[in-house]
Design a protein that fits this description.
By secondary structure, this protein is α/β, with parallel strands linked by helices. It has 10 helices and 7 strands. Helix 6 links the parallel strand 3 and strand 4. The longest helix is centred in the first third of the chain and has 25 residues. The radius of gyration is 21 Å and the shape is globular. The N and C termini lie far apart (45 Å).
Length: 307
């Protein structure tokens, strides 16, 4: 009897319903190890040699320009006595442009945003144009850049990101909160900071403080499921803007980094010519008094409303 291949074993194990939200589902299969036909192997090698270096260079250039934009705001503009409001607006404008350049380098030739405020069946329309917190279905490292090109938000990042060249400085400048999930003390501290930051933005929506981008599931998924929402984004009882991201070619190359080696995932992404994403901005949700007092209820209302 022939011994089953490693991939067939992994694929069998991945069929467990408990793992469904985390199984890498694209042409490269579980862990990105699905055997590929010879033409696909040749294509990826050619693109990996000829195109991937150019894409990587353009991505780094975009991130570096965004980083230098932040440095100009912090160090040069105060010397020139430029107002704080203008400095923030200048960085917001150019920062989003440079991040869009970085996304273009990654292959995001099409990034579409569709506002669905007309679906506000609760008729909650207010004067705010920007919610203090944005929640979305987190799939991988690239979707944060998609949001930065749109709203330049701060977010809760893994401790140590602030020390990463270029990216670390940008994260510090926009006011990211750092936490180590394995250490409860830092997680609790991050939750308190998150609550205070969201509350402050809710009190003054026009302030230069950036809105918080929160991953309510507390993890990444393969984009086909939603896990139960955690309460972090809802502790302040502030209005929330839900966003649903949909990657159009995820059946070929999924941008989810669940169940795949990160280096292998980056190579496959960079050796793919283009990616397309549509982001649906749902109406801002204004919590009721009961939801403001109960973050668990608030989280459930947002969670079930997107299923």
């Amino acid at each position: 009897m022939a011994k089953p291949s490693l991939y067939s074993v992994l694929e069998t194990q991945s069929r467990d319903p408990r793992f469904a939200p985390f199984v890498h589902q694209d042409a490269y299969g579980v862990w990105g190890l699905k055997p590929q036909p010879l033409p696909e192997i040749i294509l990826k090698l050619v693109l990996g040699i000829l195109v991937a270096p150019l894409k990587a260079t353009l991505t780094v250039v975009g991130l570096a320009l965004a980083c230098n934009t932040c440095r100009v705001e912090k160090y040069l503009m105060p010397v020139l006595s430029i107002s704080k409001e203008y400095r923030a607006a200048w960085t917001l404008y150019w920062g989003k442009i440079w991040i869009r350049l970085a996304l273009f380098g990654l292959g995001f030739l099409s990034v579409s945003w569709i506002k669905l405020d007309h679906l506000d069946v609760r008729k909650q329309a207010k004067t705010e144009t920007e919610a203090p917190v944005i929640v979305f279905n987190h799939m991988g490292w690239s979707d944060i850049l998609v949001h930065m090109s749109r709203s330049w938000p701060a977010f809760v990042a893994k401790e140590g990101i602030d020390k990463v060249p270029i990216v670390g400085y940008i994260s510090q400048h926009i006011g990211c909160i750092y936490a180590m999930r394995a250490i409860k003390e830092t997680s609790k501290s991050a939750a308190v900071q998150l609550k205070d930051r969201i509350a402050a933005k809710a009190i003054d929506p026009t302030s230069s403080v950036r809105p918080m981008l929160v991953f309510p599931e507390g993890t990444t998924t393969n984009g086909r499921y939603l896990c139960k929402f955690k309460t972090g984004a809802f502790l302040a009882g502030a209005p929330v803007r839900p966003v649903v991201m949909h990657f159009l070619n995820q059946d070929y190359v999924s941008l989810s980094w669940e169940s795949i080696n990160i280096k292998r995932h980056i190579f496959i992404m960079m050796a793919t010519l283009f990616h397309k994403v549509i982001c649906y901005e749902l109406p801002i949700y204004y919590p009721s008094n009961a939801e403001k007092q109960d973050p668990v209820l608030f989280a459930e209302r947002i969670d079930t409303g997107q299923r």
